[in-house]
Protein 1
Amino acid sequence: MADQAPPFSRIVANLPAAVPFVPPEELERKTGVKVRLRLGANESSFGMSPLAREAMENSLGENHLYGDALSLDLKMELATRHGIATEMITVAGGIDELLGWIARVFLNPGDPVTASLGSYPTFHYHVEGFGGRLHKVPYRGGKNDLDALAETARNTGSRIVYLANPDNPTGTWFTAAELKEFRRQLPADCLLLLDEAYLEFAPAAAHLPLDPADPGVIRTRTFSKAYGMAGLRIGYAFAQREIITAFDKIRNHFGVSRIAQIGALAALQDERFLQHVVEEVAAGRREYETLAETLGFAAYPSATNFVAIDTGDADRAAAIQDALWQRGVFIRVPGVAPLNRCLRVSVGTPGERQEFARILRKVMAEL
Ligand SMILES: *Cc1c(COP(=O)(O)O)cnc(C)c1O
């Protein structure tokens, strides 16, 4: 018998051993702190639609069955709402899973990819996991630098450009007109991966109209954020038919649970609830902006369910994050400069916001 595990693939053997995502549960176990305010993962404090909840409760007895491997009911509902064919939609266990499919479908080992430095890390993680080579473009003035992203994509011959609109971790957004111009600047054979995890929170001007004639765009959406269903793991993507067919060659066909399909379908029916969440979140963002101002900080303009508060200094942000954690407040500080000066705080309920403001003020007075 061999005394070592069989060799890993070259790609995996060369990946760093670090675990990229440390959840608050693990931080609790490691530090002995109990989380009181969970505002670091942009989960929805407003929960999910009561219609979705009821539909899922009524379906508990069906869960010895797999879900429909095609998620056809959900696709048909999405197709009707967006005026496109069901063949242009795929459903997955959240955007995070979709990002993996996209890297796998479009990349050969060594292929170049462009994304912003410090942008959503799960995309970077999947690109590296499939052997792609990331070219990272710094944020400029607190926003994705569209001109530099397009230039890097052209200069490197990138296969994929990743852009979150609205963005995480800044919360900022671009208009449809700006996105169209960006698309025009990209090489024709480069995929634009538009991650729209927060689109429901964004003003109408940020909604790029679907263009079925443009084969080079994938748009990813999720039930995790505005719909408040992060733990159910369900999201979807719009893309050209050939791309959806390519996903079918490699995807985990039973990866979406039946209960998630049922919950998502019901959630789409409850537009009033979604509207309520969007309004509550907008009010919460304004509160955070005011809070930031009173502490002498600037808040990035946000079209998401979180606000990035710029403390002006990375060490200060780290010290505040630490002091907040000691008091049971979970927020995030982005890992890369210059965004590592920011506290990224999810919009909580009015009660959570009040508690957060009270604790943050206390921390600032003590530091
Ligand atoms: C939260 C988030 C996701 C994750 O979505 P899931 O559907 O829960 O996997 C993807 N992209 C961005 C930019 C996010 O902030």
Note: The first strand starts at residue 37 and ends at 38.
Protein 2
Amino acid sequence: MIPFLDLRAAYLELKPGIDAAIARVLDSGWYVLGSEVEAFEAEWAAYCEAAHAVGVANGLDALTLALRALDIGAGDEVIVPSNTYIATWLAVSGVGATPVPVEPDPATHNIDPARIDAAITPRTRAILPVHLYGQPADLDPILGIARRHNLRVVEDAAQAHGARYKGKRIGAHGDIVCWSFYPGKNLGALGDAGALTTDDPVLAGRVALLRNYGSRQKYVNEEPGVNSRLDPIQAAVLRVKLAVLDKWTARRRAVAAAYEEGLADSGLILPHVPDWAEPVWHLYVVRSTARDALQARLTEARVGTLIHYPIPPHMQTAYAGLGIAPEALPLAQRLAGEVLSLPMGPHMTLDRVQDVCGKCLV
Ligand SMILES: *Cc1c(COP(=O)(O)O)cnc(C)c1O
């Protein structure tokens, strides 16, 4: 059996450090926010080459609070990728704004900057690119469009921990960058967790306020906030895992390189990496018009695979109300029918990659 991702192996490799970190929080007697969260925020900001980080409860809350901190809400439009996880859209609709989808560049599967201009209206307030599969979106043209139209840029970096765009870490290219530490992400907690990073001290302060009841001082509420605080136990775990993130990313890169070599003659469409991108391989996604047969064959051979994502957001019942015709976004629809994510992670061995490649070639 080759699992899609082995989270237990990740825990076991770091067990003494993680267990000690959790015990440290339990022993401290301090269980909400506090020094453990502050220490992780400082370490995460430094890692992301950003001035500030604010810990929150999960990635969807990070996106939602980013939009709220920018005063984006009812009547506003936000440009989102048509090809993304539904959380990107849910944050936009969650604040009462309307997600306006833009199709991907078929080579990278990320939002195509050349298609953004046509989606801008007088109501557009922000562009929300996603660094899908750990591959950075093409940020410079997106930032240029945003500047010309006076729009904000919120990045969904839930899959891109440590990735670089033109040499600089994802973390503060746009106005605010949103992170998830869901267990399966490249930097994953042992439960839900998330954060935002930004170079803007005012935005960082606003998010810190919003995540904690809109309160800086206990029982003094400056605005109607929410409870979306990063749990100090998760912060302590994340500090242990952050220390090995680059080492684990290097292992993912070795796995990706081995797939690239092993699948060169497979007839599958393999990931394309632009020369300005340093991806972190959250997922290794191949494409095939015979995807379902390939997945069935791998399942039969006890190889775990997943589809990211089988139903694009505009085809979900949740967004039937937007009235977007299925054929309005043919690229998103086509990718949903052709993509397959192969086993990938820091505990995937190169022997197993060979094995999987062999089964793809049959
Ligand atoms: C995981 C993910 C999210 C949401 O993160 P949660 O912590 O699960 O709320 C948002 N966007 C993308 C692209 C993701 O992969």
Note: DSSP finds eleven helices and 14 strands in the chain.
